[in-house]
Amino acid sequence: MNSTPAITVRPLAGLPMFAPGMSIVQAICRRLAEEGDGLRDGDICVIAQKIVSKVEGRAVNLGAITPGDAAHDLAARTEREPAMAQAILDESAEILRAMPAAIIARHRTGHVLANAGIDASNIAGGDEGTVLLWPLDPDASARTIRSGLQSASGARIGVVIADSMGRAWRIGTVGAAIGCAGLTVLEDRRGKAQDLYGRTLQATVIAVADSIAAMGALAMGEGAEGTPVALVRGAERWVGDEDGAGAVSGLRPVEQDMFR
Fold first, then answer.
1. Count of beta carbons in the 10 Å neighbourhood of residue 180
2. Using N-to-C axis directions, what is the helix angle for 82-91 and 69-78, rounded to 10°?
3. Backbone φ, ψ for residue 139 (5° rounding)
4. Mean per-residue pLDDT for 33-45?
5. Beta strands in 123-172 (DSSP E)
6. N or C: the chain end with fewer CB closer than 10 Å?
7. What integer pLDDT is reported at residue 12 of this predicted model?
8. What is the C-alpha to C-alpha distance for residues 135 and 141, in angstroms, rounded to an integer?
9. pLDDT band at 3 (very low <50, low <70, confident <90, very high)
10. Are strands 103-107 and 92-98 parallel, antiparallel or unpaired?
11. For residues 94 and 101, what is the distance between their CA atoms, to the nearest angstrom?
12. Region class of 52: left (phi > 0), else alpha (psi between -120 and 50), else beta
């Protein structure tokens, strides 16, 4: 018999359209109260990167960007507007691949993804050149939100900031943790557990934060659903009292990058 508790995830509907300066903490607490619910010990709030970037004022208009020579070269190679190429360069520590399908960049936070995470979907003014950048420090944003939610609710919780990313060798995107607080990012089971036949695990490291982010992103949706927060319950064994090392602790070191 499997005694592992069930994990549930539900999108939090009815949240407002977020704008610079608004409080994600207040919006979540207010909506849960309206539903007759509240945060409980062990809950995990998965929050879409878009609303974190919006409240932190990370929207920029490409018309205000002056592209340099490197941006013009990148734009020519990838069939993009030079201003967009400049925005990607500004947000990147390194360009790994550049082609019309995507510019694969190592974001300045260390995450590797397409177009340095810059996106125009679900953004007011997206058709007029407005794009949204990632938060300056997603892990710091997650810590701030977690602190606010714990103070407001008295509950011990985890927070994951999620964005959709492509994956090597796979088609399609999946939610991934770009910011994390109060949650185990990686569960290293090497030498600590056995398989069904008693063999000690040798290579199993579970990407807990990414798995939670993927659950939340799937529940929230990618289009016009308007549900940028999901509540995960039943995963309290991975929720800790401390903020933890953050999502960056789950990044493979550059010297171990097999795709460079």
1. 32
2. 110
3. -65, -40
4. 96
5. 130-132, 158-166
6. N
7. 96
8. 7
9. low
10. antiparallel
11. 18
12. alpha
Say whether 211 sits in a helix, a strand or coil: helix
Mind listing the domains of the chain with CATH numbers? Answer: 6-57+136-251 (3.30.1330.100), 59-133 (3.90.1660.10)
Across 7-13, average pLDDT: 96
Over range 31-55, report the average pLDDT. 97
Comparing 75 with 4, the larger pLDDT belongs to 75
- How far apart are alpha carbons 254 and 233 in whole angstroms? 34
pLDDT of 245 reads 85
Query: Alpha-carbon distance 236 to 139, whole Å?
Result: 20
The whole-angstrom separation of Cα 158 and Cα 59 is: 26
Q: How far is CA 18 from the centre of its chain?
A: 17
Neighbouring-strand partners of residue 183: 239
SS3 196: coil
What sign does the CA torsion over 14, 55, 186, 245 have? Answer: negative
- At 2 the pLDDT is 56
Q: Residue 248: what pLDDT? A: 95
Those residues with Cβ within 8 angstroms of residue 65's Cβ, 6 or more apart along the chain or in another chain: 83, 86, 87, 90
Say which residue, 243 or 114, is predicted with more confidence: 114
* C-alpha span between 88 and 32 (Å, rounded): 37
